[in-house]
Specification:
Organism: Chitinimonas lacunae
Number of helices: 9
CATH architecture: 3-Layer(aba) Sandwich
Catalytic activity: CMP + ATP = CDP + ADP; dCMP + ATP = dCDP + ADP
GO molecular function: kinase activity
Helix content: 40-55%
Protein name: Cytidylate kinase
Structural class: alpha/beta
Distance between the termini: 18 Å
Radius of gyration: 17 Å
CATH superfamily: P-loop containing nucleotide triphosphate hydrolases
Bound molecules: cytidine-5'-diphosphate
Main location: cytoplasm
Largest sheet: 5 strands, parallel
Number of strands: 8
Length: about 220
Amino acid sequence: DILAPVIALDGPSASGKGTVAARVAAALEFHYLDSGALYRLTALAAVRRGVLFDDVEGLTEVARALDASFVEGVILLDGEEATEAIRSEAIGEGASRVAALAPVRDALLARQRAFQRLPGLVADGRDMGSVVFPQAQLKVFLTATAEVRAERRHKQLIAKGEDVTIQKILEDIQQRDARDSARTVAPLVQLPDARLLDTSAMTIDQAVRTVLGWWETVQSSRP
Ligand code: CDP
Ligand code: CDP
């Protein structure tokens, strides 16, 4: 059995991981895993089922039984489209809370690994390189300053009609960074074997080209 190669893109909220990962996957015709969507779906399913965010057993059961599918950029929950519904700030906040629970993370592990199929996978999240795909051929730590990330997220939310100030988003981002980095299970860290990509002053195109260039280097140095 040949295991498909993996490119792991980890980094903080709104650093551009999703956008860059999806573009890299498209360019290489690789599969794409948006692992954050699984935590967001767990949070949304919990809200819909009336499971509270302090009910660890309830949340673990929701994660285990999650009826989710990803079809060409469309995300389904219980057979209904949830692509937009999981992108709100409230669900992002809930996702960050359920993601701090070890049993919830365990319940989602096999589901994430199932995305590793030929010809290859690009996966984005917080622990792609550390926990889910530690054997990834290329690990990237994608980041940007909190101010730049708040601006990017603000633009996205305003375009969707959410009424929120940049100051509030900056506070949310800082709080989420702190929670994602300080938690004991699978914290967000820059691994020693990950390449740093600071996109603060980069366009999406530049970031995508950098990752593709790294991938070429990795491939040409393989025996
Ligand atoms: O878009 P943003 O980067 O804010 O979030 P996301 O990637 O959609 O993930 C939502 C939340 O899930 C994050 O705040 C993390 O706490 C959590 N997450 C995680 O713990 N591990 C992952 N591999 C991906 C997301
Ligand atoms: O997945 P993550 O939360 O890390 O970020 P994202 O949703 O991919 O990106 C957040 C926003 O920043 C999107 O609207 C991207 O188009 C934008 N972005 C950008 O303007 N410049 C970059 N170099 C990367 C992302």
